[in-house]
Prior knowledge:
The protein is of the alpha+beta class. It has helices at 27-38, 100-113, 169-174, 200-210, 268-280, and strands at 16-24, 41-45, 51-59, 62-71, 89-97, 119-124, 128-134, 140-146, 154-155, 159-160, 189-196, 214-219, 222-226, 234-237, 256-265, 299-303, 309-315.
Amino acid sequence: MTVNSPDDYIASPSLKVDHVHIKVSDLQDSIDFYQSILGFSLLRVKSNGNTAHLGTGSIEGKLSTLLVLEQIDQKGNVSSTSKERREAGLFHFAILLPERKFLSSFLRHIKENLDPQFYEGMADHAVSESIYLHDSDYNGIEVYRDRKPSEWKWIGENKIHMVTEPLDVDNLLSQHRDEIWTGFPVHTSIGHVHLHVSNLAKAKKFYHQILGLYHTASYTGAYFFAANGYHHHVATNTWIGTNILPSSADDYRKAGLEHYAIEITGDIEELNRLKRQLTMNDIAIDEDMKDSNEQNDTSFYIYDSDGIKIQILLSK
């Protein structure tokens, strides 16, 4: 892939992950899991009954979707929901809590209410503290809180120190004994997405050189990318191997990642600047929105080097 970027394109500092759209084998079962067990609010269900929007309720009078669940065409197609599926797509999406006390109460909540089959582990990553789960379709979920940026350790200009060490569970629980989990609080967001890819070098060309994200860290078999001094908005790994299938984003017979959305803030010229960068590098831009409510000039889809689908949104 030849990268054309005469102006050394850098992503908008406002860039962040807006929401994640996943395909599920049983919509009602998934709504129950994400609403009753995890703590999302159900915002709306489309009139055709096959798609649900979940979030954290109203922020400044506006309902903000963080997670979209869509029923696959062939209900119960378990062959595509196995944890052994070998294709590009979602490793996990990461739900960022605004304060540590919420992570503490969430941990107590899942210890009491989550079926152990959905639990995967916990970790301290130096920049953050994380709890890992998966849903019944083996869509990976991380729930985490960030340490203050002043506590992060940067190596050189754009490389950040991240590790995977045991989470100090006793410390986490002991400091916030009185916190009761009542669901994801206002100002919860999707902090990042972590993706299975077939080739790290190709992923770096797409996310770093074309989309303009900083390459913030490398780990064995994984690269991390971010805008504006964050530790990572997107991570890519080859942990299930390099001989994997492309993403099945548009195959509605299979559960898994349909797309994730990146939001940038600004005027239309910010979006056009990105479009020019993508066009210059032969990245197809799809403005034919599947949901007619989204058909406008401030949103479009693209696909990365493994066919992983990304929605680009402009907010003002």
